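User: My instructor asked us to take a sequence, write out its structure as tokens, and then describe one feature of it. I'm not sure where to start. Here is the sequence I was given:
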Amino acid sequence: MVVIQGVEVMLEYHLDDKNIDFYRALVPLTLRRQGIAEKSVRTGLAWAKTEGLNISTRCSYVVNFLR
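Assistant: Let's start with the prediction itself. The structure tokens for your sequence are:
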């Protein structure tokens, strides 16, 4: 979770051993269309790759970055 302009932005995930499931990217309406979701997803995926985790997702937004 990150707080931007007093509002919480989250990339939610479940971590189980070496498997990570990014299941939800949450950016409030007031902060959308500013690239915040993209930055949080790219940061989360980069961290997961650095840690050698097996990445999966149930989030349609995150799927776009795994193609």
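For the description part of your assignment, you could build on this observation: Residues 47 and 53 are 9 Å apart (CA to CA). Try explaining in your own words what that tells you about the chain.
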